[in-house]
TrEMBL record:
Cofactor: Fe(2+)
Domain Metallo-beta-lactamase: 86-247
Name used for this protein in its record: Persulfide dioxygenase ETHE1, mitochondrial
Source organism: Anopheles culicifacies
Cited Pfam families: Lactamase_B
Main localization (coarse): mitochondrion
Length: 308
């Protein structure tokens, strides 16, 4: 509007009589009209563009904050943490049947997890690993002793021993609930993302972290494969799906598909830039890898405490 007023004042100043708005003829009238119209058009164009930008930004924000799915009343969820390895484990259960599963258990926390399962009255059906970890020893072997009847589970492509091996899109059930295993290699060949579609959640292991991703410089890692796994498998889930990683080092607990598609500093790059970045991280050799990988190949059976 300010531009419209300025244009009008300029038209007035252009008239022959100072301080008086005179229209000496049809030609001058057209000149003034064109000046006013031009200023108005410039203002409207500028305002409309700004409005469109604000609307697009607002729409992105609204989409990113789409309501999450509410857990059904018979679905139990508990996020657990190991401070030493910064690993998240996840206890899921059917509250009606009491059947439970535990994702990515840690050896040092197996007693804690077994006690919690006992206190809640659950029966641990499966202990699953998203992949063969290199930064901690899995708790599945120990849990099989602490909670008899527990079935250990991992990807068929992992190279690790287990009671049950999963292939892409295979499902496991606990009570009436269904968990689908999606193959998402790149950090390792055997990485899987576990999805519970009804609850709108996915457990991404080390493939996708909160504002990051797993490293690709050891243990069959491949940057292009990881990029493809994230963009073709995880980022194609509904945008309001909640994502829970196997690790976090900054105190974050969860994210969403929409958030990572917009804010992940690595995976918002094009594939070539991503590969270049991953090839030049220069990360230190994992402290636990020489101990953890051999143990995890055997379902975490190495180094189980003697009192087990």
């Amino acid at each position: 509007m300010r531009q419209l007023i300025i244009g009008f004042r300029r038209a007035v100043a252009a008239t022959p009589a100072a301080g008086v708005f005179v229209l000496p003829g049809q030609q001058h009238t057209r000149l003034v009209s064109r000046t006013i119209a031009s200023s108005a058009a410039a203002y409207i164009k500028s305002s409309t563009t700004c409005s469109f930008v604000r609307t697009a930004t607002l729409a992105q924000g609204v989409k990113m904050l789409d309501p999450r799915k509410t857990f059904t009343e018979d679905f139990f969820f508990r996020q657990l943490f190991d401070e030493q390895s910064h690993t998240y484990s996840y206890l899921l259960a059917d509250i009606t049947t009491k059947e439970a599963i535990l994702i990515d258990p840690v050896l040092e926390q197996a007693k804690r997890d077994a006690q919690l399962i006992k206190e809640l009255g659950f029966t641990l059906k499966y202990a699953l690993n998203t992949h063969m970890h290199a930064d901690h020893i899995t708790g599945t072997g120990y849990l099989k002793q602490l909670v008899p009847g527990t079935v250990s589970v991992i990807s068929q492509s992992s190279g690790a021993k287990a009671d049950k091996h999963l292939v892409d899109n295979e499902t496991v059930k606990f009570g009436r609930h269904v968990l689908k295993a999606m193959s998402t290699p790149g950090h390792t060949n055997g990485c899987m993302t576990f999805v519970v579609e009804e609850q709108g959640v996915a457990f991404t292991g080390d493939t996708l972290l909160i504002r990051g991703c797993g490293r690709t410089d050891f243990q069959e890692g491949d940057s292009r494969t990881l990029y493809r796994s994230v963009h073709e498998r995880i980022f194609t889930l509904p945008e309001n799906f909640r994502l829970f990683p196997a690790h976090d080092y900054k105190g974050n607990m969860e994210t969403t598909v929409a958030e990572e598609k917009r804010y992940n500093p690595r995976l918002t790059k094009d594939v070539e830039a991503f590969v270049e970045l991953m090839n030049n991280l220069n990360l230190p050799y994992p402290k636990m890898i020489d101990k953890a990988v051999p143990a995890n190949r055997e379902c975490g059976l190495y180094d189980i405490p003697k009192e087990a």
